[in-house]
Amino acid sequence: MIPAAADIRVVLVETSHPGNIGAVARAMKNMGLDRLVLVRPKAFPHSEASARASGATDVLERATIAASVEEGIADCGFVVATTARDRDQNIRVLDVRDGAERLVQESGRGPVALLFGNERTGLTNAELSLAHLLLRIPADPVYPSLNLAMAVQLVTYEVYRARGARYVAPATPAVPLATAADMERLYTHLAVVLEEIDFRDRTASGTHLMERIRRFLNRAELDQNESNILRGILTAIQRKRRVAGSHDRESP
After folding, report:
1. What is the CATH number of domain 180-250?
2. CA 156 – CA 178 distance, rounded (Å)
3. Where, residue-wise, is CATH 3.40.1280.10 in the chain?
4. How many CB atoms lie under 10 A from the CB of residue 249?
5. Less crowded by CB within 10 Å, the N or C end of the chain?
6. Are 237 and 193 in contact, with CB atoms under 8 Å apart?
């Protein structure tokens, strides 16, 4: 578990499509954020927003409406704006990962805000001037345009990572690994079956087949169930061969 989120707000400015608001709410909840501010949304509340939220309607219900960006960020000590365009203004621009780390760092001192502009036009120069720095999301220059909800998902993911989120594999597998003795029994059984079906090393030396099999099965790190499955397959092959052999003997 990572620490509870500080006051990190996602501020959407003049969002045109209510479905995007719902998708943003879902993206935020995925990443442990719940402070949504809507500046002059075209349509909100709206049934499409609720439908697209898909389980994150609580984020929508807590959302606040602001008449201006200034109102939405009035008590925020640090503001980061997102932009997809190169800007001539004298303002710092950071990669999204570096910007997310700075945002999380500043959130320990007080409320912070992430600004996202209108789907079609983005943030105006006047709105960008309210930010301490800009975030850029790396994308293919041939087609760098991102849907609003996609952009929010990417940025909030980086914020989640900056807050300390990491995937940690289980300390111990549910099924123990096959022991050295288990693997030796498997290799012995396999060698017997290969001999029975006349499957031989076709290389020039003809002596390395079992060594190669050992190497790739060791790389697989079989657990005890998997080792038993392979031995069960080998036993089934042997039974089929015995039945086929008895039929051959009965043939005239």
Report:
1. 1.10.8.590
2. 41
3. 8-162
4. 6
5. C
6. yes
Task: Using DSSP, state whether 56 is helix, strand or coil.
Answer: coil
What does each of the 252 residues of the chain score in pLDDT, given as a tens digit?
A: 666 677 999 999 999 999 999 999 999 999 999 999 999 999 999 999 999 999 999 999 999 999 999 999 999 999 999 987 665 567 889 999 999 999 999 999 999 999 999 998 899 989 999 999 999 998 898 988 899 999 999 999 999 999 998 887 777 768 899 999 999 999 999 999 999 999 987 766 666 888 999 999 999 999 999 999 999 999 999 999 888 776 655 544
Non-local CB neighbours of 156 within 8 Å, separated by 6+ positions:
10, 27, 28, 30, 31, 33, 114
HSE, CB side, 13 Å, CA atoms: give it for residue 51: 6
CATH architecture assignment, domain 8-162: 3-Layer(aba) Sandwich (3.40)
Give the 3-state secondary structure of residue 236.
helix
How much is the pLDDT for 141? Answer: 87
How far is residue 87's CA from residue 128's CA, in Å, rounded to a whole number?
Answer: 10
CA atoms of 100 and 119, how far apart (whole Å): 21
Q: Which amino acid is at 122?
A: G
Q: Are strands 8-13 and 35-39 parallel, antiparallel or unpaired?
A: parallel
Task: Please state, in angstroms and rounded to a whole number, the distance separating the CA atoms of residues 165 and 159.
Answer: 9
CATH 1.10.8.590-classified regions of the chain? 180-250
